[in-house]
Amino acid sequence: MQVFPIFIAIGTGILIAVLGPINSLLQAKAGILGLSSLVHVIGLGVSLLGLALFQQTPLFGAYLSTSQRLALAFFAVCLLLAYAGLVGIGIRQGLPWYSFLGGIIGILVVLGTVFSVRELGIANAIALLLASQVLAAALLQQFGLLGLEASPLSEAKLIGLGVLLLGAVIAIRS
After folding, report:
1. Which tens digit of pLDDT belongs to each residue from 92-141?
2. Structure-derived torsion over alpha carbons of residues 7, 109, 149, 30, reported in degrees to the nearest 10
3. 24 vs 31, 138, 144, 148, CA distance in Å?
4. For residues 15 and 129, what is the distance between their CA atoms, to the nearest angstrom?
5. Based on the structure, what is the number of domains in the chain?
6. CB within 8 A of 72, min separation 6: which ones?
7. What is the pLDDT of residues 127-147, one digit of tens each?
8. CA neighbours within 13 Å on the CB side: how many for 128?
9. What is the span of the domain harbouring residue 81?
């Protein structure tokens, strides 16, 4: 089994764990619908820019003319600039800069999950995604990172995390 897809799956699981606390920071100021809108605007902007610049598939890339690609890129840049303005407003209201990364992290989670499933198979990918997500979440909470309240790991939780990690290792080795 290749090592690179394993690292992608583990990294994606860590990103999933980080996504919740980051989004909750933004939601505290923007509300749930504001959060959803902001996360999806940045996700759409980055995705459209990537589509305009890099996508070469029969569904999109091969059929987009240069002018269509430029128009798509321009629209994406406009979305991203509007988002940057909102980030500035949020930072002035006391939000940390990283609280606005939810949309970008969401894109990375989608890409990492799709890549991991394709390269490792669904069972192996999910085993690694879940194990790394839960381990990262436990560490974030243990140290009170990203606005979380610190909560020390009990012996029972440590044993559970060890069993989870062992299960993921067994799953990908078989």
Report:
1. 888 888 888 899 999 999 999 999 999 999 999 999 999 999 999 999 99
2. 160
3. 9, 17, 14, 10
4. 10
5. 1
6. 48, 49, 51, 52, 64
7. 999 999 999 999 999 999 998
8. 23
9. 3-173
